[in-house]
Amino acid sequence: MTSGDNEEEAVTMLHCDTAKLDALRAFAGPARCTHCGDLMVAPVASEFVQGGEIRHYWECDACGEPSSSAIPLCGDEE
After folding, report:
1. What is the assigned CATH class of domain 3-72?
2. Burial of 78 (0-12, 13-18, 19+ CB in 10 A)
3. pLDDT tens track for 3-43
């Protein structure tokens, strides 16, 4: 393997890690109510869906409306 091959591999790994970091931010970041825009701190319930997705179920403290969000864990890079 030459030095150029190592650099290309490092760039590729950085690209994959950046995509995973975006998914983690979506997973860990605060959500906003889709109805009133208020911040929601924690979901009422969460579930892992076979196939690589996490679903969160929310209920807004301000307006009481339910909502949900889905976070894919598998990227399209395969």
Report:
1. mainly beta
2. exposed
3. 555 665 555 554 455 556 665 665 566 788 999 999 998 89
